[in-house]
Each structure stands twice: as structure tokens, then as C-alpha cells.
Write a structure and sequence with these properties.
This protein is mainly alpha-helical and about 90 residues long. The chain is built from five helices and two strands; from the N terminus they run ααβααβα.
Length: about 90
């Protein structure tokens, strides 16, 4: 995955699928997934409606939002110069 020094969207989606299908993950793996996802989402410094929908699917995959996911969403918001209404709603939910 890291042969070229960065992960593209399809590689990140694969990681998200692995995380979603796991019954339990370790903190180090979650941190790796979030670190891989962050630059993909913030590539243009904004979070649009499509990206918010993608995040919603990932965050709510197991039906709950844990503390590491909340922290990740807060970091995304802090790193974005603009966010869509859909992302704001995701934060509220």
C-alpha cells in the first residue's frame, strides 16, 4: 500500500472496508486508517457534500460513533478551510 509513499482513494477505501468488516480493531490500526484518510479528504482543504456522505458511511458503519472517530472528525474540521452543511450535520449527529 505504501510503495509509492502515499495512499490513493481506492487504497483508503480498501482500508475502510477492512476496518468496517472487523469485529474489533486495535488503536494503532485506527490511527493508521485515520492518518491515511485525512489527506484524501483534505486534499483541497474543503469537505464537500460527497465527502461528508462518504465519511458518514464510514463513521456509522457499525451503528455508533466512538471517541477516536469523534476526534478524527474534529481534526478534519480544524484542517478544512470550508465545510459543507452535510459535514456540519454529520458532526451534529
Amino acid at each position: 500500500l505504501l510503495a509509492d509513499g502515499k495512499l490513493d482513494r481506492s487504497e483508503v477505501e480498501w482500508l475502510l472496508d477492512v476496518r468496517k468488516s472487523s469485529t474489533k480493531t486495535v488503536q494503532a490500526f485506527d490511527e493508521f486508517v485515520f492518518a491515511a484518510l485525512k489527506p484524501v479528504i483534505l486534499e483541497d482543504k474543503s469537505i464537500d457534500a460527497k465527502e461528508a456522505a462518504w465519511l458518514r458511511k464510514f463513521i456509522f458503519a457499525d451503528g455508533k460513533v466512538d471517541d477516536s472517530e469523534k476526534k478524527f472528525l474534529a481534526e478534519l474540521k480544524a484542517g478544512a478551510s470550508s465545510v459543507s452543511a452535510e459535514f456540519t450535520q454529520l458532526l451534529a449527529d
